[in-house]
């Protein structure tokens, strides 16, 4: 008969062996993940090349609300286009399309638009910012478009001119622009936009730069390697920040009724323009230049005055929350500080 002491010894050896095996498995699993990444591959499935239509056509169906947030691209055929976030991006978080490559990160408060590409999908979070995986396995920051892991490490996706606004406002500016076809309204899963930070986003966030409040709405601008954040929450109904970034004159347009910010070059060819927010201009063109008196839309087009029909050059920028911008670009300057 086996003694009780022998049984206890065998039990403890087995327990210790199980613990060692478990720790080894955890170590191997952790080693497979890039440092600092909270990985949830497959958590959202991307959408690829949904069929196209026109904004005016889709509006008549009554499926898109006037206040629906849309990401728009500002140049190209048909005067650009718009993607309703609730209908096409809130569910998949990634859209691969001929119009562009689009990433939606509700935690960081942005939609990033890049030059068309395919094979990208949601991967997880890093420093509270969404991470996407490319077709070759490379991991990219959705906000900066910079690969930080894999075969394309250090490379960068090319942004396309874009801004985020309301559906009705964009429809007023460019009803002829393109949109995805919603068909009868049951083809795509409509997902309400999150109103709070996800647990995963918070868990991966880390320490936040204290120069601004964590959730402050900003426009992040990047010119010639220089980054600058423009706080928007206290900017009033209409605002124009005229500044120099990376030795380039820029103008940041802000329109509170549609919560829209966008940056353009303050020079039009050889002409230097001084922009300002004009309180008596129509909502379709809330900005004006002092040199010619031309009124400008948020899409950077002159619609009334000597420069009517001319287009401003878009400046690399993205509207997001401060914590996300500062996490990706800790060397950023802050306007007014």
Provide structural commentary:
With 337 residues, this protein is of the alpha+beta class. The protein folds into two domains: 47-180, no CATH class; 217-334, 3-layer Sandwich (Rieske Iron-sulfur Protein), CATH 2.102.10. It is built from six helices and 27 strands. The protein has a five-stranded antiparallel sheet.
The largest pleated sheet is described as:
5 strands, antiparallel
Overall geometry = globular
Q: Provide the residue-averaged pLDDT.
A: 91
Q: What is the topology, as strand order, of the major beta sheet?
A: 1-9-10-11-12
Radius of gyration: 24 Å
User: Which regions have little confidence, pLDDT < 50, spanning 5+ residues?
Assistant: 1-31
Query: Distance between termini?
Result: 81 Å
Q: How many domains in all?
A: 2
Count the beta strands. 27
State the secondary-structure class: alpha+beta
Helix/strand layout:
Blueprint: H1 4-32, E1 37-39, E2 47-48, E3 52-54, H2 55-59, E4 69-73, E5 81-84, H3 85-88, E6 94-97, E7 100-105, E8 110-114, E9 121-126, E10 129-133, E11 139-141, E12 147-149, E13 162-166, H4 167-173, E14 178-180, H5 199-203, E15 217-223, E16 226-231, E17 238-245, E18 248-255, E19 260-265, E20 267-268, E21 271-272, E22 275-277, E23 287-289, E24 295-296, E25 302-304, E26 317-321, H6 322-328, E27 333-334
Parallel strand pairs: 2-6, 5-14, 16-27
Antiparallel strand pairs: 1-9, 3-14, 4-5, 4-13, 6-7, 7-8, 9-10, 10-11, 11-12, 15-16, 15-26, 17-18, 18-19, 20-21, 22-23, 23-24, 24-25
């Amino acid at each position: 008969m086996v003694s009780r002491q022998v049984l206890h010894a065998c039990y403890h050896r087995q327990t210790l062996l199980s613990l060692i095996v478990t720790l080894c498995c955890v170590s191997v699993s952790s080693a497979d993940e890039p440092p600092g990444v909270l990985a949830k591959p497959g958590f959202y499935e991307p959408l690829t090349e949904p069929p196209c239509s026109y904004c005016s056509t889709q509006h008549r169906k009554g499926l898109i609300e006037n206040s629906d947030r849309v990401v728009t691209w500002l140049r190209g055929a048909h005067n650009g286009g718009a993607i309703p976030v609730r209908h096409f991006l809130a569910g998949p978080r990634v859209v691969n399309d001929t119009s562009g490559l689009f990433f939606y990160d509700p935690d960081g408060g942005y939609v990033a638009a890049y030059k068309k590409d395919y094979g990208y999908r949601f991967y997880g979070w890093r420093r509270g910012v969404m991470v996407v995986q490319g077709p070759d396995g490379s991991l990219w920051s959705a906000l900066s478009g910079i690969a930080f892991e894999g075969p394309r490490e250090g490379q960068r996706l090319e942004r396309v001119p874009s801004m985020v606004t309301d559906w009705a406002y964009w429809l007023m500016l460019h009803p002829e622009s393109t949109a995805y076809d919603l068909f009868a309204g049951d083809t795509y899963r409509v997902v309400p936009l999150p109103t709070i930070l996800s647990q995963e986003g918070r868990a991966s966030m880390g320490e936040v730069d204290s120069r601004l409040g964590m959730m402050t709405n900003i426009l992040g601008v990047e010119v010639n390697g220089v980054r600058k954040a423009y706080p928007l929450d206290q900017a009033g109904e209409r605002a124009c920040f005229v500044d120099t970034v990376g030795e380039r004159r820029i103008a940041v347009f802000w329109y509170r009724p549609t919560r829209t910010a966008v940056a353009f070059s303050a020079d039009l060819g050889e002409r230097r323009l001084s922009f300002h927010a004009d309180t008596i201009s129509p909502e379709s063109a809330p900005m004006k230049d002092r040199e010619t008196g031309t009124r400008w839309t948020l899409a950077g087009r002159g619609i009334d005055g000597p420069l009517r029909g001319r287009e401003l050059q878009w400046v690399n920028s993205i509207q997001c929350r401060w914590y996300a911008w500062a996490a990706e670009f800790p060397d950023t300057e802050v306007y007014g500080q």
